Fold:
Amino acid sequence: MRKLLLFCCVLPSGLLFAQNWALINPDYKYNYSNDGTDTISNQVFVTHVDTLGVDSFRYVLNRVGIACMGCTQGLTSSCYYGSSNAVRSEQPQFMGWSLSRMGDQWSVEGVDTLLIYPFNGLGSSWVGPGGITGLITNVEETTLFGSLDSLKWIGYSNGDTLVIARDHGVVLFHASGLGDPSYQLIGRTGLFIEGKQFPNALGIFNYQPNDILQGSPKNRF
Structure:
């Protein structure tokens, strides 16, 4: 059984916003690490919500820039480049372009569309778009950010793995089509502050009232 290691902080009991197996909460920004450390590599959040029906919604995710080394062919106005490298803007997050919910059914919409039935139990399987099969391979209880939570591991026939939590959304995304990285939830900002966050100005320059900043003569201009 694989273990999910998360950086936790202690919160008073009952203060966490209960999502009840929702994959994302528009009130939060989710911080992920792709190298197993506490360094934030990606922040995922909802930019707007499309109402598709009475109980159907699409949560459109923020876009990112992606480096394209040695790539000068087929550049468009969304690319910024020098002599040999480019940065492609407005690219999807590792989760894709959006997450959609229709009743109790969710989908992650990226290169492949992954179908999720978060309320199903261990051993449950289904076939999603493109013939991609999903299977709940493990269910466990654990503590995330100081609060008891439930996890479900979902394996897909295209090689992807999702770990979802009852109260914290997507806590692990192993994306086989993106060079095999694993994106792990290490913090969340919203109604409550949990786990690892981007440092603010005081976190970088922790000066206090009456502090004196001095420079050496060699640093003068």
Summary: The two ends are 59 Å apart (CA to CA). Confidence is low (pLDDT under 50) at residues 1-18. The first helix runs from residue 201 to 204. Residues 138 and 164 are 11 Å apart (CA to CA).
